[in-house]
Design brief:
Layout (H helix, E strand, L loop, with lengths): L3 E7 L6 H9 L6 E7 L6 H11 L4 E5 L5 H8 L7 E4 L5 E2 L3 H12 L5 E9 L16 E3 L1 H7 L6 E6 H6 L14 H7 L4 E11 L11 H7 L1 H13 L5 H16 L4 H7 L3 H6 L1 H14 L19
Parallel strand pairs: 1-2, 1-4, 2-3, 6-9
Antiparallel strand pairs: 4-8, 5-9, 6-8, 7-9
């Protein structure tokens, strides 16, 4: 059995998938399968992947589902993965030729540690810069996702490889009618029980598209406010300190209002009621600002960035 599954949720990315496929074909180590979850594409994704399946020198698994958003595609995809490791790679990105080789080398080194949920590497841009906002202090460092990425203030995107059993243990929550949810809602929950190993090697290359999720974050958030409220709640229940905690409480209040929750509901269900009261008036102000400048225009106005506590 293969040791690694590369899991790619995709929606109308026919024009971009060949770049990812080419990077998989160039891997020095082919001990992996590629699992493509088509989230209801209306382009020729099915036919394109069928062609990949015929020419690839590694297994390709293609499954199609009704459109429901990236997080629902990930949940759906887990049932087709039996390898110990899962590497989520977006359909408009690609891997370095030694990515699989480095991942499996790390796995063989640390596979006996029972408290790990996965390994984190760096993402880079085509111009050679990093997507993460800083490197980890010590290559191979062992901490939880919350300790390393949030409390140390290492923002931006990294390349996480997860133990499949942990992803199946902590699936993404799904809210009816909402198609967008920040993936770190699960990574934060994993920190309650597991640690990770962090490495300063670039194995993943990204170049965000104008129509992609990150570029249109605010519009997606306002169309899926219940998920953003839950992500903020998870954040506030975690061992998060300082400014990131303050930002998460602001999120909780602002998206809570967009979700239609009453102030009483939000207050009763939150951990840290003193902080809730402290941010009450600022949160109300931000809510009215967004409602006037963005909410009525599908959020195509000025971007108000909560930084590390953002719901992606």
């Amino acid at each position: 059995m293969k040791r690694l599954s590369i899991l790619t949720p995709t929606y109308n990315r026919e024009a971009h998938l060949p770049k990812l496929f080419a990077s998989l074909c160039s891997q020095k180590n082919k001990d992996f399968q590629w699992v493509v979850i088509d989230d209801g594409s209306t382009d020729e994704t099915r036919e394109l992947v069928a062609g990949f399946t015929e020419s690839a020198d590694f297994p390709v698994v293609y499954k199609r589902k009704k459109n429901g958003g990236k997080h629902t595609a990930l949940n759906y995809g887990y049932q087709f993965i039996y390898t110990p490791l899962t590497f989520i790679v977006d359909s408009d990105d690609c891997l370095t030729p030694d990515a699989v080789e480095k991942v499996l080398a790390v796995y063989e080194t640390y596979r006996e540690e029972p408290d790990l949920c996965g390994f984190s590497f760096l993402r880079g841009r085509p111009d050679g810069t990093y997507l993460s906002q800083g490197e980890v202090p010590c290559d191979g460092m062992k901490e939880t996702f919350v300790q390393c990425r949030i409390n140390r203030g290492i923002g931006g995107d990294m390349a996480e490889v997860w133990y499949t059993r942990c992803l199946k243990e902590y699936p993404f929550p799904v809210f009816a009618g909402e198609k967008f949810l920040g993936e770190d809602i699960v990574w934060i929950r994993l920190s309650e029980k597991y640690q990770m190993r962090f490495f300063n090697d670039v194995i993943y290359l990204s170049d965000y598209l104008e129509e992609g999720l990150t570029k249109n974050r605010r519009a997606h958030n306002l169309s899926s406010p219940k998920g953003c409220v839950e992500r903020a709640r998870v954040f506030l229940n975690a061992d998060v300190h300082g400014k990131p905690r303050l930002k998460a409480m602001m999120q909780y209040q602002v998206y809570g209002r967009f979700a239609g929750y009453t102030p009483g509901q939000l207050y009763r269900e939150v951990r840290g009621k003193w902080l809730f009261l402290l941010t009450w008036l600022p949160g109300l102000g931000v809510y009215h600002w967004w409602e006037q400048t963005q909410g009525k225009e599908n959020a195509h106005g000025t971007d108000f960035d909560f930084g590390g506590a953002a719901c992606l």
